[in-house]
Structures are given as C-alpha cells and as structure tokens.
Amino acid sequence: MLRTLRIRDLAVVEDVTIEFGAGLNLLTGETGAGKSIVVQALGLVAGARADRDAVRAGAERAVVEALFEISDNSPLPGWADEHGLEPIVDRQFLVRREVSVTGTGRAFANGSPVTQVLLREAGRLLVDLHGQHDHVRLLEADRQIELLDRFGGSERLAAEVAEAFVAVGAAEEELAAWTERLARREDRLDQLRRTVREIDAVAPREGEWEALASERRLLRSASRVAEGCQEILASTRDGDESAVDRVTRAARRAEELAEIDPTLLGAVERLRSAAIEIADVASEFEILRARLQYEPGHLDQIETRTAALQQLFLRHAADETGLLDLRASAAAEIAQLDDVDASRASREKALAEVLARYVAAAAQLTERRAAAAGGLSAAVTGELEAVALAGAVFEVQLDPRLVDGAPVRHRRGGERVEFVFAANPGEPARGIATAASGGELSRLLLALHVVLGPTLGADVAVFDEVDAGVGGTIAYAVGARLAEVAQGRQVICVSHLPQIAAWADRHLGVSKSVSDGRTRIRIESLASDERIEELARMLAGRRATASSRQHAAELLRTTEEASEALQRRRA
pTM of the predicted model, to two decimals? Predict the structure, then answer.
C-alpha cells in the first residue's frame, strides 16, 4: 500500500506530504482545488510521461516521492533483484521522480536510478491507475487474457501452453538446422574427417608445446650450457681445490676447535650443511650436463615437431587442449552424420511430441476460456447497473487466431481475448478502450474490480472520474462498490460527491489559498467533525448550512453502519 506521497513544485503545489491509510482513501475539495494534481503525481510515480510545463512557476524542477509498503506476495522484490536494484528492506519501497523545466528528468526506485521504461514496469506492480486511458493496464490485450484465465482458474494450463509453444519452436529450429546440415552433409563429412586426420597425424599431447620449447632452448645453447656446467662443477665439486673439499676441511677444523669451545658446535653444523648444499647444487648441474647427451639430429626432430604443432594451432585451435577437444567433437559429429536416418527420425519424433502436447493443452485452454468468458461477462454486466451503467453490456469475446484463414500457434493459446463494452442498448459492443468515456471506463473498471478482486494485481487502485455523470442513490452504490474493493486492497479515489466520500476510511480534504501573491495547496486528513463540514459543503454547494450539516451527519452514520455490515459479511 501507499504510505506517503510528497509533492514539491508540481503545478501549483509548493510542498505537500500526504499520509494514506489502508482501505478507501477519498480526496475531496472544491473544483480547481488541486485534487487532480495528486492523480497526476501518482501517474509520474507509475512511469507516465513527464511534461515540463507541469513544473511550478519559478521552480527548477518538480519532485514526487512515494513510499510504499510491499505486501508479502508482491512480485516487486523479485523484479528489483532481476534488474539489479537495491534489495527491499522491511518491505519499504521508495519511488522518486524528478521533472526539470528543461524537459529532462530522473527517476529512482528504492534508491537506484532507473529508466522510464523500468519505472513504468515497477509502477504496474505498485499502482493500478484508472481514469486516463494511457495508464489503464486493463486495456492491454495480454492483461485481459491473464484476467480471464485467473477468473476461470486456468493459469497453470495457460503456463503449460506457453511452455509447449516455446518447446515447439525449439524443436522446429533444431529440425531445420539439422535439415540444413544434411544438405551440406558430404562437404561437412569431408571437412570433419580431414580435421581428424590432420590432428591424428601429429597426435598432440597435453603440455607438449611447453616441454618442446624448454628442450629447444636448451639444445640451441648446448655448448654454452655444457661449458658453464663444467666450470661450475670444477669449482664446486670436481676440482683439486673444490668448494666442497675446502668447506669439508673447514668443518673438520672447526670441530677440533669446538672441543675447546663448545659454543662453536653450531658453526660446525652450518659448515657441514654448507658442504652438503654445495654438493647438491653440483648434482643439479651434473644432471643438466647429462641432458645434453642427445643423439645427433635430435634438435632437428624437435624443430620439426614444433613446426607441426604450430601448423595445427594456426588452423584449428590455440593449444593442445583445444586440438584434443576439437578432435573429440569432430568425431562425435561424424558419428551423427553417419547415422542420418536415426538422427532425423529422432528430431521429427521430438517435434511431433511437443506439438501434440501444445495442441492438446491449447484445445483444453480454449474450452476453459469459453466457459469462463460467459461467467465473467454475466458477472460484470450484473454489476453495471449499480455503477450507473444500467442497460450497458460487458462481454468477453474470443476470436480464433487465424492467418489466411488457417489457425496459427501462439504462446497465449489459439484465441485472442478482448473485453468489449456497449454503453447503451442497441449499440454494438466495441473494445473498452474506444467504447467507454473516461467516467464510464472508470466505473466499468470498478465493476471489474468488484468481480475480480485481488486478481487484478497491484495493491493500490486509483480511481479518477469514477463519479462522472452519476448522483444520488447511484453515487451511494458506487461508493459502496469502492468500499467493497477496498476490503482487499488500498483504494485512492478523487470524488466530487458526498454519497461517495461518506464511505471513506480516510478522508483527505484538498484546499487552496493565496499567500504573498502565490497559490498554495493544502491536503490534510479530516477529523470526524471536519468530515461532516466537508460533506455538508458538498451537499449544499459552496457553503455548508445547518440543514446540510444534519444531512451530512445522517449520511455519515448510515454509511458507517453499512460499512460495518460489509466487514461482517467479509469476516
């Protein structure tokens, strides 16, 4: 639900913070007081296009901030994680929208900057706006299909159809790719077999390149290495006065001195260790010198082997591992191409299986949708009289998806779903986007809310123009329907009628005044006596009278009793 909404420098609003509550939140005020600015601000929060003319005169930018409390079953945390936004903490989600006089703007969702497209996605999960056609999600074809499937309990079956549709597409692509591959089979086989032969002719081994490079460097400098080894061995071990002999003699002499001064025993051990260490070093150079004893022509063999590997690297892969992997994959593909009939048959069978699954699931979904369409049409039409649309008809139309008269597959199933509406008897039903005026559309959507309840998605529903063209007992019935919808979600409504405003769980009064030559807007929650005064003003016109106050108190009392009865029925 929406907890707070702060509006700064938008239209004539300088700085207003509105606290909303659960249930039905009603905004009332005199014509031109600024009620529509609240709806405009919520539209900006939901990702509506920004108009730089909306910035308050003299300000550089308009700012709207909305703090939402997310319900436990909201998809918003998953959406935020998917798009790399800051995680939602304590179920608090903050949206900030800025509009500059230059026409630029910025948007932030939970502290992270977002594009207008992402903001609109988040807005659809947060708020259902009713009254302006470009904000109404129910006008979208996919949304209408979703709602019909929810009403008919077909969501799982619809998901199965979508999964089967994807599987059919993948199987068709696999078969097409294989068919194309078969057309080039012989050329492909020649290429694969040539690759295998070239690799097998060299037979590369893991790590061979580095080993050859090391041996190659050694042999190319064989004389220099041999000379160095000889010199080092003569100095350390093999000469008449080698380092090992001299250190060994020094160790014996030190041992004699240690008999006189035992503190020299440590020095004796170090001298012995030094003699051993020098001998070990000499052995390493002895091994290195022995490695130089190759057969004549061995360097040529290494050069030839290196060149062969290098040619394979240039043609096929960057290293020995790549060559061996390529050889394995080529051999596997050769086996597949050699077994053409079995491979094609298996792919055709896989396609036939997933296609049969799609056809069966789509046919079952069509049957369920046909049954649900009649039920939803009757239920919504039954609500229209209560919202001042007596004689109007709402229908859910199903039309098969055809191309050139032939059925086509679609991830949504075999039919298009459209909500259609006829406002007056005798008129043809048309899509609700074009058949209903702003006020009619708001009331139609209110009827849909009553029938569909929480399945409509977002936790917050905003109604504007819902009272257009109604009054008296019809307005009272519209208020009752709003209160019923507000039992399951938060509702924010702008109204000019006291019969609707009396149903509010939280009544917000909108007023404007002039100070220092500037118009300022105030929006504040009305206490019980203030509500009576506001309802009395709405009943009487501009000024409340004693009679209108009495009427307002009676209206409020009657509405409260009806609201309590509604809550008891819900319980």
Answer: 0.63
